[in-house]
Automatic annotation (TrEMBL), chain A:
Organism from which the protein derives: Agrococcus terreus
A Pfam entry, by short name: TctA
Segments of skewed composition (Basic and acidic residues): 519-531
Chain segments carrying region Disordered: 517-556
Source taxonomy: Bacteria, Bacillati, Actinomycetota, Actinomycetes, Micrococcales
Keywords tagged on the record: Membrane, Transmembrane, Transmembrane helix
Name this protein carries in UniProt: Tripartite tricarboxylate transporter TctA
Sequence ranges assigned to domain DUF112 in this UniProt record: 20-442
Transmembrane segments: 20-39, 46-69, 107-132, 144-163, 169-188, 314-338, 359-383, 395-428, 471-492
UniProtKB/TrEMBL annotation, chain B:
Domain DUF1468: 29-170
Pfam family, one: TctB
UniProt-listed InterPro entries: DUF1468 (IPR009936)
UniProt-recorded name of the protein: Membrane protein
């Protein structure tokens, strides 16, 4: 087994103490930012891109992989425990998990999410290990026209599917493609859209685009509408060993496996990423549930947390398959990771497995290690992360701005970039206000120049005949699949929107009573296990005259 | 802040207020103008003579600006028919109250100040001003805590990124070079 030896070599690299430390750093950062409201994995990777200027590639990608996986784990903690109106209805995991927490079963929801993420993440990483070298071997034979087809698929699926409406996604995508065009054209040496500004000649750095839109835009947007008053947090009290009762395990393991089976393929094909996967998993769990559990859906069914969480993590690993083997990003985070590769002069794609086997396999091995670290970090230590939710928001967002400034300045060490990033940040601010998705813009800006290069190569080979673009069977199949994916996914999105619109508000007392009744019918009833106090501890923010002394508030 | 009506949370898209509608139309209108202007600019990109087959430097810009024009026109028409986008939701985002424009403006200015403060005062002090300005604008209570936290972040990033990782962040600027670190 060639793959196995390579993987073992990867482990030999990734298990060196220094790389283990980098992996730990990555998953800690990833979990922290996943937990912190308002910071997603895309923003974190963008903010940490400056470390690529200083670290060697293997270390940097181990950190990024940790952030990428960690962000997925941490996000569920926030949506389960943070009880803010509005947000929780938009994501299916939060839908059930938050209801469970409000009914006093938050610990069980957290546990099934963390263990499900671990199971799904590990299985999906195994699949990635098995699939990636094969796909890379096949992909070596692809020509420029085939690559162009793949990139068009990535553009259209990301643009059409990540957001409220197809056309808003297209606006965002075209803005990104436009930003990617700025600079001197590599083929003809002509300046395009530089307006005589010499600093624009090299184009706008991808770091600048990503940090401006994600970090600065988000901080400005949240800052303009910062929630006042208390943040109602649902507390977790008891030890983590007693979180899942017997029936919870029995009800969780099938959804974990089904979620993995749904999530991984959807992550692999560019079909709108994790969103579609979580909803599909949720819908299938609901229809497969036994009648007595079915009435719990919408009121805190554990299957509704276990399945979508697993699907979410499996999709995250699936996204890495096209990223590593073809160099095609299918999410904003993946696009930013591609730009990190580029800043090392590496081109992700089929040849990466031949030219940089040590790096690739160390990266894959670190995914296994990261998953184990994350399970430990998220189960016994979840209380530590919950404390992060209590960081005063003014300091949190001011800190994000400081790191955005660092990212902007460190890209080229000119203050000109501070101005550019501010323009992009204001653009991102208004796009968020108007409901334009941000991810297509970033994907367009990063993938656009690569797509143009492939297109022009293809046209040169085809001697200017556009028919060359659909010349190979691969390209024809790819375009056909693209239409299928978009139509199918748009239909799914409509269904999800309709489903979420018809959810009635449910009383938490009724949820708890229903749970108690179901549990009493179990062969080994354990009503008490996994229960929590349901009282809500308010956290004071912006209250007049905080009574506590100094010492709070100085944080990073 | 006045107490919000926290009764039954109303589902469905709330009717966009007049100012929000105007803002939405203006934003998309600007995009339409931008795409037309960029189509004009594209036509002035020089195509070197003698490029045989293959695509010149103009083709892709035309396609991209065309896509931008078409899609923003469609969104504009959708909005004129009353289909507005819904603002992003988030854990810390309060959509029920209006936008705090003044603090947002101060945050933007604090960020912009880096253009002057990095060359003049150096990185740590520049970050201190940015952090303190932004934190106070966003509602931090104690000004000295904000300044101290900002200074701490400035010094820590200087040490970690400037000294340990070797990025050339200026410790001092033109006005503070007498400190002599």
């Amino acid at each position: 087994m060639d793959t196995l030896t390579l993987l073992l070599e990867g482990f030999a690299t990734a298990l060196q103490p220094i790389y283990l430390l980098y992996a730990l750093l990555g998953v800690m950062l990833g979990t922290a930012v996943g937990v912190l409201p308002g910071i997603g994995p895309a923003m974190t990777v963008a903010l940490l891109l400056p470390i690529t200027y200083a670290l060697e590639p293997t270390a940097a990608f181990i950190v990024f992989a940790g952030i990428y996986y960690g962000g997925m784990y941490g996000g569920s903690t926030t949506s389960i425990l943070l009880n803010t109106p509005g947000e929780s209805a938009s994501i299916v995991t939060a839908l059930e998990g938050n209801k469970m927490a409000r009914a006093g079963r938050g610990a069980a929801a957290l546990a099934t999410a963390a263990i499900g993420s671990f199971v799904a993440g590990t299985i999906a990483t195994v699949l990635l290990t098995l699939l990636a070298p094969t796909i890379a071997r096949l992909a070596v034979g692809l020509g420029p026209a085939d690559y162009f087809a793949l990139m068009v698929i990535a553009f259209l699926t990301v643009g059409a599917l990540l957001g409220d409406s197809l056309w808003r996604g297209m606006v965002s995508l075209s803005l990104g493609l436009f930003i990617g065009l700025i600079g001197v054209d590599t083929l003809t040496g002509q300046s395009r859209f530089t307006f005589g500004v010499p600093q624009l000649g090299d184009g706008i750095d991808v770091v600048i685009v990503a940090v401006g839109l994600f970090a600065l835009g988000e901080a400005l947007y949240v800052g303009s509408r910062l929630r006042n008053g208390e943040i109602p947090l649902i507390p977790i009290t008891r030890g983590w060993r007693t979180w899942m009762r017997r029936s919870d395990w029995a009800r969780s393991w099938r959804p974990w496996l089904r979620g993995t089976a749904i999530g991984f393929p959807i992550g692999t094909i560019p079909a709108g990423g994790a969103d579609v996967a979580t909803f599909l998993s949720y819908a299938s769990e609901r229809s497969l549930a036994k009648p007595e559990y079915k009435q719990q859906f919408g009121r805190g069914a554990i299957e509704g947390v276990a399945g979508p969480e697993a699907a979410n993590n499996a999709a995250a690993a699936g996204v890495l398959v096209p990223l590593l083997t073809l160099g095609i990003p299918t999410s904003a985070t993946a696009a930013i990771i591609i730009s990190a590769f580029q800043s090392y002069g590496l081109q992700p794609g089929p040849r990466l497995f031949d030219t940089q086997p040590a790096l690739v396999w160390a990266l894959i091995a670190s995914l296994y290690i990261g998953n184990i670290l994350l399970l430990v970090l998220n189960l016994p230590l979840v209380g530590m992360w919950v404390k992060l939710l209590q960081i005063p928001r003014p300091y949190l967002y001011a800190g994000i701005l400081a790191f955005a400034g660092l990212g902007a300045y460190a890209a080229n060490f000119t203050v000109f970039d501070i101005g550019v990033i501010l323009v992009l940040g204001v653009l991102g601010f208004f796009m968020r206000r108007q409901g334009f998705p941000i991810a297509p813009l970033v994907v367009g800006a990063i993938l656009g120049p690569m797509a143009e290069e492939q297109l022009r190569k293809a046209m040169q080979i085809g001697q200017g005949d556009p028919a060359y673009l659909v010349h190979s069977p691969f390209a024809i199949v790819a375009y056909g699949l693209m239409i299928l994916i978009v139509v199918l996914a748009l239909w799914l999105k409509r269904r999800r929107a309709r489903y979420e619109a018809q959810l009635p508000p449910v009383d938490t007392v009724a949820i708890a009573a229903l749970d108690e009744e179901i549990e009493s019918h179990q062969p080994h009833p354990q009503q008490d296990r996994g229960r929590l106090s349901t009282q809500i501890t308010p956290i004071q923010r912006r209250s007049a005259d905080p009574p506590e002394g100094p010492g709070t508030g100085s944080d990073g | 802040m006045t107490t919000a009506p926290t009764g039954a949370p109303e589902q469905g898209a709330p009717a966009a207020s007049r100012s929000a509608r105007i803002e939405a139309l203006a934003f998309v209108g600007l995009l339409v103008v931008l795409s037309i202007a960029m189509l004009v600019v594209t036509s002035s990109i020089r195509e070197p003579a003698g490029s045989t087959n293959g695509l010149g430097a103009r083709v892709v810009p035309y396609a991209v600006c065309g896509l931008m024009l078409v899609s923003s026109l469609v969104v504009l028409v959708q909005q004129l028919r009353g289909r507005f986008g819904s603002a992003d939701e988030g854990e810390d985002v309060d959509l029920e109250h209006g936008t705090a424009w003044l603090p947002t403006g101060i945050v933007v200015l604090s960020f912009l100040s880096l253009i002057i403060t990095i060359p003049m005062l150096g990185w740590p002090l520049g970050v201190t001003i940015l952090f303190a300005g932004a934190a106070l604008a966003l509602g931090a209570k104690r000004w000295w805590a904000a300044v101290l936290a900002g200074l701490a972040i400035g010094v820590v990033t200087q040490v970690v990124f400037g000294e340990l990782l070797g990025l050339s962040l200026p410790i001092t600027g033109a006005l503070t070079s007498w400190i002599g670190l």
